[in-house]
Amino acid sequence: MSSVAKKKTNVVKNKTKGPGLKNRDTSGPVDFSHREFPMLDKDFKFIQDMALKQTGITLSHHKQEMIYSRIVRRIRALKLRNFSEYCRYLSQNMGLELGEFTNAITTNLTYFFREEHHFEFLKKTVIPEIRNKNAKTKKVRIWSAGCSTGEEPYSLAITLTNARWTSGWDVKILATDLDTNVIAHGRRGLYDIGRFDGMDPEVQKKWFASSNNGDSQSDEKLAVKPSLKEMIAFKQLNLLESWPMRGKFDVIFCRNVVIYFSKETQRVLFERYAEMLSPNGYLFIGHSESLHGVTDRFETLGGTIYRKTH
Ligand SMILES: C[S@@+](CC[C@H](N)C(=O)[O-])C[C@H]1O[C@@H](n2cnc3c(N)ncnc32)[C@H](O)[C@@H]1O
Fold this sequence. Notes:
globular, Chemotaxis Receptor Methyltransferase Cher, domain 1, 7-stranded mixed beta sheet, disordered N terminus, Rossmann fold, alpha/beta, single chain, binds S-adenosylmethionine
């Protein structure tokens, strides 16, 4: 799929740091007690503990500035005065606030055909193998775990259908994420035009339709065509909790998700992925992630691609 994503410029930087913070030394604890909405050490500790317990995400001190700016939006919306009040509010209204809290702390950076070599491998190696292996059932199941705003599952769907073999096959992609906002975005399937920079215009034209509602060109959005949407089920799911899925998957993509998890959480998660994969099923993880010292249930094929061995 080398022509599909020639350059990786269509990066969504949801909830990332603002300008001016890049060069700041954020290695140690920073004093947030004199800010407009004071955050004490004990408040950050509470947020760290809550994040770890509820999502598996480890928030180190260098994330303090980012967490401050994200949680402050909730504090303003709730008309609270400081982080201590927010922590109290969260613990007393878990049912109401937990979703907002987890949405605020997750990092959703993603883009179409991210780590292009994964999609190449899928096309050249995995798809031909699955077509042989599943020739009788004509069923393919793929899971995009931690799918963010949907670019990953849509890239998977495009790769599968572009290979021109899916007709007559039952192909389903499950796309899950903890964050309800990103799931809603993926389900809507509407993306700013700037997100398609670097995508082959033919691929763009084939799978996305203009949905400009008369606004300026820069506001233009493209909508995923229904035939592609139909292949994907977007569901909210916390990877740390129980999973309702019954059947096995041929392929699991879980990329740039476990980077925030402790080794122990990763161990449990990859054990569960091995159980969810069919024999010799494939697992794709992020470029800075590794299964080394985490699980022996997969063999590495290079390029952060793994195959289940047992
Ligand atoms: C950086 S994005 C990765 C998106 C996509 N996989 C990619 O590589 O482009 C990480 C996603 O993992 C999700 N996530 C984090 N913790 C999670 C959890 N415990 N359960 C499910 N999703 C989680 C976040 O909400 C976020 O959307």
